[in-house]
């Protein structure tokens, strides 16, 4: 039985539970796949193969003893290297963090994935301190696009996108502050879930912007995405933002029909500044779902501007001591934006926060008459590595700053989104399925319907 890239996480776990495969066999297949391809893809920065093998042996022993194993039993996964992994330094894509002591305990989400039987195989490359949309790390090298290794994986969870898109692992975890799950999902042609702000615990992960930061999964199928998401749900006293919601399993719901849902395309701002491939992807999704209504989102451009103000000032505050003591150890592009953030006047930040409250109220009103909004995840397919500018809306703009043009106005107010891959030629591109707070179940239902219709799919890697 061939594990990679043919089998999903759900199929792997079922085969192990049925004794058609062993967890050790799957782990060794993952180790081999990673060892053969990581030098090219640049997805992993650290490996936990010894730990993975020990976990796999324990799972196989439980199966042999007739014990019930978890829904992710034996499924390999990786985590963005801003998650604490016991025994590893939490790099957060930086040079400076390499001087930190090794983590003594895993992040909450790793603990929950392993409680469900998943097997951690390593930590994944990312943009420095998560302030990146490209997947190009100056310290560890770029994580590369699995469909064309001369192109970006997207950031900042670039290693996560590259590892899942390249079928090195069936599941990975990343973070999303301004688009860092949705952008790699779009470029690498995979499914990604940015949950509602506060839904999944961020405990023992390195922060970027505390009021925006989300953690979430990547997968090659919606079922796998829901399996991972359900495994990680639940309140956590170690994260003040994640203390109120109980378990709300979504896997039993994803196959429900979507004909009862009120689905619209986000108009105005979200239909501007798009390359033809993004227009085509949104059109295909809307047509498949019968979404003829277009809803204008008021002041989305201002929301993006306000998101920038809050991101850069909160990020600067977090890193002030590092900026003072070790400025030359930063990626210059990250350092300069953080320094600029430290100089933003306080009244401007107050205005951004007040606008944020107003903007959240506008979306609450939209969701009175709409269950789902469709929007582009990125304005284009993956640019070339090192590409500095692209022409967007007839204007030459910097790539790094504008890849997240359509994701920032959504994470700004913490809405749940599933990014679905539309397998265009020659490269895939993602579409956002956006729902009201705490309605990840609806977003996953829509993603599943699109997958079953063949409109959304994770194409096999072809760049290596």
Furnish the topology, listing elements before pairings.
Blueprint: H1 9-17, H2 23-41, E1 44-47, H3 49-64, E2 76-80, H4 108-115, E3 119-124, E4 136-137, E5 141-142, E6 144-145, E7 148-152, H5 158-165, E8 171-176, H6 182-188, E9 191-194, E10 214-219, H7 222-232, E11 263-267, H8 276-289, E12 293-296, H9 300-325, H10 332-342, H11 346-366, E13 372-376, E14 389-392, E15 395-398, H12 399-402, H13 408-411, E16 417-422, E17 429-435, H14 440-452
Parallel strand pairs: 2-3, 2-8, 11-12, 11-13
Antiparallel strand pairs: 1-3, 4-5, 6-7, 8-10, 9-10, 9-16, 13-17, 14-15, 16-17
Task: Describe the protein's architecture and organization.
It is built from 14 helices and 17 strands. It is an alpha+beta fold and about 475 residues long. It has one domain (about 10-450): Amidase signature (AS) enzymes. Strands 1-3-2-8-10-9-16-17-13-11-12 form an eleven-stranded mixed β-sheet, sandwiched between helices. Strands 4-5 form a two-stranded antiparallel sheet. Helix 4 (about 110-115) links the parallel strand 2 (about 75-80) and strand 3 (about 120-125). Helix 2 packs antiparallel against helix 3, helix 5 (about 160-165) runs parallel beside helix 6 (about 180-190) and helix 9 (about 300-325) packs across helix 11. The model has no long low-confidence stretch (mean pLDDT about 95).
């Amino acid at each position: 039985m061939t594990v990679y890239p043919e089998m999903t996480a759900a199929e792997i776990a079922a085969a192990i539970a049925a004794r058609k495969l062993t967890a050790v066999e799957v782990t060794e297949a993952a180790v081999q796949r990673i060892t053969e391809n990581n030098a090219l893809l640049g997805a992993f920065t650290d490996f936990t193969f010894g730990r993975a093998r020990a976990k796999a042996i324990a799972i196989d022993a439980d199966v042999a003893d007739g014990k019930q194993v978890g829904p992710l039993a034996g499924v390999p996964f990786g985590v963005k290297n801003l998650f604490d992994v016991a025994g590893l330094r939490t790099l957060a894509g930086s040079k400076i963090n390499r001087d930190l002591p090794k983590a003594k305990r895993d992040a909450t989400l790793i603990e929950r994935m392993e409680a469900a039987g998943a097997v951690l195989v390593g930590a994944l490359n990312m943009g420095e301190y998560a302030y990146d949309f490209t997947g190009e790390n100056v310290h560890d090298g770029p994580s590369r696009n699995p469909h064309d290794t001369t192109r970006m994986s997207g950031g900042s969870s670039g290693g996560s996108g590259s590892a899942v898109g390249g079928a090195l692992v069936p599941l990975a975890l990343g973070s999303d502050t301004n688009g860092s799950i949705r952008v790699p999902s779009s470029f690498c042609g995979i499914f990604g879930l940015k949950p509602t702000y506060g839904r999944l615990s961020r405990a023992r992960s390195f922060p970027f912007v505390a009021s925006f930061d989300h953690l979430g999964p990547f997968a090659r199928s919606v079922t796998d995405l829901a399996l991972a998401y359900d495994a990680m749900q639940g309140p956590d006293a170690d994260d003040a933002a994640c203390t109120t919601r109980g378990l709300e399993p979504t896997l039993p719901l994803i196959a429900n029909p979507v004909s009862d849902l009120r689905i619209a395309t986000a108009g105005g701002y979200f239909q501007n500044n798009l390359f033809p491939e993004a227009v085509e992807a949104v059109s295909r999704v809307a047509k498949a779902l019968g979404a003829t209504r277009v809803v204008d989102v008021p002041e989305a451009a201002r929301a993006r501007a306000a998101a920038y103000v809050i991101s850069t000032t909160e990020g600067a505050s977090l890193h002030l001591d590092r900026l003072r003591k070790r400025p030359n150890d930063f990626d210059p592009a990250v350092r300069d934006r953080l320094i600029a953030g430290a100089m933003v006047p306080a009244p401007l930040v107050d205005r951004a926060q007040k606008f944020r409250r107003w903007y959240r109220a506008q979306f609450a009103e939209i969701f009175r008459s709409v269950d789902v909004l469709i929007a582009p995840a990125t304005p284009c397919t993956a640019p070339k590595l090192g590409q500095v500018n692209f022409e967007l809306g007839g204007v030459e703009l910097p790539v790094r700053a504008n890849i997240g043009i359509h994701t920032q106005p959504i994470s700004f107010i913490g809405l749940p989104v599933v990014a679905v891959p539309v397998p265009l030629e020659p490269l895939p591109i993602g579409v956002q399925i956006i729902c009201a707070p705490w309605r990840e179940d609806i977003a996953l239902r829509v993603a599943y319907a699109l997958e079953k219709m063949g409109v959304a799919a994770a194409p096999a890697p072809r760049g290596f």
